[in-house]
Design brief:
Length: 270
Amino acid sequence: MTPLRMTMNDVGMSKPSYKWQRVLLKVSGEALAGDHAQNIDPKITMAIAREVASVTRLGIEVAIVVGGGNIFRGSSWVGSSGLDRSSADHIGNLDGNSYRMLATVMNAIFLQATMESIGIPTRVQTAFRMSEVAEPYIRRRAIRHLEKGRVVIFAAGTGNPFFTTDTAAALRCAEINAEVVLKATNVDGVFDDDPRHNPNARLLDTLTYQDVLSRDLSVMDMTAITLCQENNIPVVVFNLTKSGNISKAILGERVGTLVGGPSVSTTARA
């Protein structure tokens, strides 16, 4: 069942209040690629749009951070091209990491177009100015868009090299006072071992932040998870490819793995 409670509105009428009222959905670039037949799978973006639409109609405010790994990954250039990490992150015009950042902008614009095609008012905000195609990131403007029922897509990461889009998701979540980071991936959640190599690997229902850091679990990079810990932001890791999972996660239903939050201890599902 959807966790909700009843509250009173301005005219004394009861209305449902869901577990999360403002959420930050992180969608990786790889997830947008689907079966990798092309850089962006329109069926994936439409599925995201429809599920987001279903919850925004309930009054839940949704912001999104998109990755760019389906188009460009700086790490893939390291070694094979003779470049070190710093050089790979700075290919191009002083801030070559901007190529990876631009990949997130392309994904954001594609996702915006898909959402608006089914009637969801959507705004893209970028970490550096691209005024011809998107708004610059302004915290108060982003919050105002959310309050008006618009979806806001944050692109270009943090605007700085060496920081992942997971860190951008944690940062934007803290800045706009969202209550949770929902990380949409291609797996069911966090496992105690690699399920591709160990058929007996167990899905972990809940984890503490310290579990993630001490066991080096593949949830987010250390900067992102530490930022979530310091701001007491729970993280839900779930499978984007399963129909209904996005709306379930946004509504606060049990799905995937919950990291952090109040009184969380590690539990596993057989």
